[in-house]
């Protein structure tokens, strides 16, 4: 039976309010237990979390359908599900009799899905009394199977037992958190090496990368450049904001800094809890006090972008805030804040010519969707094209993706000797440990430092102190290591290269 994930608006009462969420749909209808679970957590969990729960549940149902009758009991089936997330379902001959053809997952991805299933199972077992098919109205076969899986999970605790934390919960009962089903190296921040965008190419990116099609040589910068994308990039590179945070900016959130009117004062407010702009007035012309969720609903019949699932969605990672429900952009160096204000004023002249039904600062300026909020995906595509115009390759490890600008900002703070507490404030981290990924030296820096340090070892060696391995190639060749120097560059009767000092 086919189970698909779709986006839906769920109305849970007689009002016109709804919750947008992913649901699972089959020929027998929607999976109601999943809808109930997501509704129960809709106020405190993100749309991204909802998608992960739906994805994990969809996979479990697909696995159950594909293995009906193949495994003798529910415990075996559930444990096999966990194994196949890690290993994939294809045999060495490339054949998968189940027809699933799942590829193997990384430990991190598999454990996220396993943790989501475990939490859903706990909730479902608790709210159904942990009694499968007893006094519970099932709307379809998949509802039955999810309830039975939840019951089996609670009964045996064997399913996903390897994902529970090894540290007991302080007050007993269920362990406090999930750990990885497979051990991984402990890390802080990103798995990959965090490379910042190359500083020497940043001006080129703005002036030569973000050029408008067919206007690459126009003398007027406002017509030659894509000012909107330059502004988003400046917020990331000059103030260290995450890309998604930039897309919550309202036009009202930018003004000259009272301390220096040539520099932009930018505040990114919480998408829903942030203070509504001052232009929200009642029928008497008096300001209305409310948050941005209420403002968007009343003025534009919209929902905050972090609550959406479509192309207009923009995440919110719960950063450390500077004031009541907002964080301020800290320009470093200040000249980038001055450039931002200059380009912003030119950009507003373009923005006012487009009809909009939203307060967001970054919008589509032309085409069929003119006036719509700019999407993250469109910006990422534009950024990639701008990078390629410079002759660079787009890649995380090359420091040429949008998030690399935030890394560049963090490294700039570190190299300038900014105190870690101030770096934490500037990056809007809640923990000092969170900034490690942005400020730790990258692979190239480590390599350069180690190569430079060889000189120090050589000077100590000149003093008669053996402080590094002595590589005796001639001796190694006598013990069958001929492939160490097959061309005789460093050994043999007439070496072609000579070591320094030899």
Overall tally of domains:
3
Distance N terminus to C terminus? 75 Å
CATH superfamily of the largest domain: Intergrase catalytic core
| Overall average pLDDT | 81
* Total number of strands: 6
CATH top level label of the largest domain: Mainly Alpha
CATH topology of the largest domain: hpI Integrase, Chain A
- Strand arrangement within the widest β-sheet reads 1-2-3
How does the overall form come out from the CA principal axes?
Answer: globular
Radius of gyration, taken over Cα atoms and rounded to an integer in Å = 29 Å
Helix content: 25-40%
Task: Classify the beta-strand content into a percent band.
Answer: 5-15%
Return the string of H and E elements.
Answer: EEEHHHHHHHHHEEHEHHHHHHH
SS summary, helix count: 17
Report the CATH architecture of the largest domain.
Orthogonal Bundle
Describe the structure.
The protein is mainly alpha-helical and about 500 residues long. The chain folds into three domains: about 5-165, no CATH class; about 200-440, hpI Integrase, Chain A (Orthogonal Bundle), CATH 1.10.443; about 470-500, no CATH class. It has helices spanning about 30-40, 45-65, 75-85, 105-125, 140-155, 200-210, 220-225, 225-240, 245, 290-300, 335-350, 375-390, 405-415, 420-425, 435-440, 445-460, 475-480; strands spanning about 5-10, 20-25, 30, 255, 260-270, 325-330. The strands form two sheets. A three-stranded antiparallel sheet has the order 1-2-3. It is globular and about 70 Å long.
């Amino acid at each position: 039976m086919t189970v698909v994930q779709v986006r839906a608006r769920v109305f849970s009462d007689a009002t016109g309010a709804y919750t947008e969420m992913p649901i699972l749909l089959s020929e027998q209808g929607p999976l109601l237990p999943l809808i109930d679970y997501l509704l129960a957590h809709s106020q405190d969990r993100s749309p991204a979390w909802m998608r992960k729960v739906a994805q994990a549940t969809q996979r479990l149902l697909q696995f159950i359908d594909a293995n009906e009758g193949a495994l003798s009991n529910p415990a075996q089936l559930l444990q096999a599900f966990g194994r196949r997330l890690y290993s994939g379902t294809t045999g060495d001959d490339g054949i998968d009799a189940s027809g699933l053809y799942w590829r193997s997952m990384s430990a991190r991805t598999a454990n996220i899905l396993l943790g989501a299933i475990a939490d859903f199972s706990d909730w479902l077992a608790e709210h159904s009394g942990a009694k499968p098919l007893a006094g519970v109205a099932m709307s379809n076969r998949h509802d039955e199977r999810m309830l039975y899986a939840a019951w089996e999970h609670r009964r045996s605790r064997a399913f996903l037992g390897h994902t529970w934390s090894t540290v007991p919960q302080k007050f007993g009962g269920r362990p406090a958190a999930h750990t990885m089903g497979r051990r991984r190296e402990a890390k802080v921040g990103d798995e990959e090496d965090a490379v910042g965008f190359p500083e020497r190419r940043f001006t080129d990116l703005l002036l030569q990368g973000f050029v408008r099609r067919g206007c690459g040589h126009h003398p007027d910068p406002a017509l030659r450049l894509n000012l909107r994308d330059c502004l988003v990039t400046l917020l990331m590179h000059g103030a260290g904001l995450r890309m998604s945070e930039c897309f919550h900016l309202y036009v009202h959130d930018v003004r000259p800094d009272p301390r220096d009117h040539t520099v932009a004062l930018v505040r990114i407010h919480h998408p829903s809890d942030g203070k509504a702009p001052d232009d929200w007035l009642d029928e008497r012309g008096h300001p209305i006090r409310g948050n941005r969720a209420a403002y968007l609903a009343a003025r534009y019949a919209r929902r905050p972008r972090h609550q959406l699932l479509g192309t207009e969605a923009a995440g919110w990672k719960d950063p450390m805030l500077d004031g009541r429900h907002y964080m301020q952009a800290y320009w470093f160096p200040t000249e980038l804040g001055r450039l931002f204000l200059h380009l912003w004023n030119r950009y507003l002249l373009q923005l006012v010519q487009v009809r909009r039904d939203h307060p967001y600062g970054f919008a589509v300026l032309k085409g069929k969707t003119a006036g719509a909020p700019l999407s993250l995906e469109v910006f990422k595509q534009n950024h990639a094209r701008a990078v390629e115009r410079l002759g660079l390759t787009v890649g995380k490890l090359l420091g040429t993706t949008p998030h690399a600008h935030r890394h560049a900002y963090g490294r700039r703070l570190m190299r300038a000797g900014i105190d870690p507490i101030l770096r934490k404030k500037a990056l809007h981290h809640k923990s000092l440990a969170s900034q490690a990924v942005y400020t730790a030296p990258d692979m190239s820096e480590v390599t350069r430092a180690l190569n430079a340090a060889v000189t120090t070892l050589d000077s100590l060696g000149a003093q008669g102190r053996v402080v590094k391995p002595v590589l005796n190639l001639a001796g190694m060749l006598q013990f069958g290591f001929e492939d160490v120097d097959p061309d005789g560059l460093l050994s043999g009767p007439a070496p072609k290269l000579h070591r320094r000092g030899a």
